[in-house]
Task: inverse folding
């Protein structure tokens, strides 16, 4: 992957793979798969700029598995790989 650093409070993440089967065992065709709302944090910006000029630390860290809102972020393709760039406030939970 190219050397990429998000700006400000932006986060670069990679979506996790979509499920190929339902819980009942039905195999889903590619067109029926829903894009997952779960991903892994790849890179962090420098943090949100506060009124006093300092940067707010991130709640998430590189490698964290997170769930984000449905229409969050901007999809980008870098070196043939698909990523999502979003703000920290679009992340809903950290999966442990």
Result:
């Amino acid at each position: 992957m190219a050397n990429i650093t998000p700006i400000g409070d932006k986060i670069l993440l990679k979506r996790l793979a979509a499920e190929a089967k339902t819980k009942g065992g039905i195999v889903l065709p590619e067109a029926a798969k829903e894009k997952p709302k779960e991903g892994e944090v790849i890179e962090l910006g420098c943090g949100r700029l506060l009124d006093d000029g300092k940067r707010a630390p991130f709640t998430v860290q590189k490698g964290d598995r997170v769930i984000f809102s449905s229409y969050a972020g901007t999809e980008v393709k870098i070196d043939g790989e698909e990523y999502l760039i979003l703000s920290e406030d679009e992340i809903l939970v950290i999966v442990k």
Notes: The longest strand covers residues 38-44.
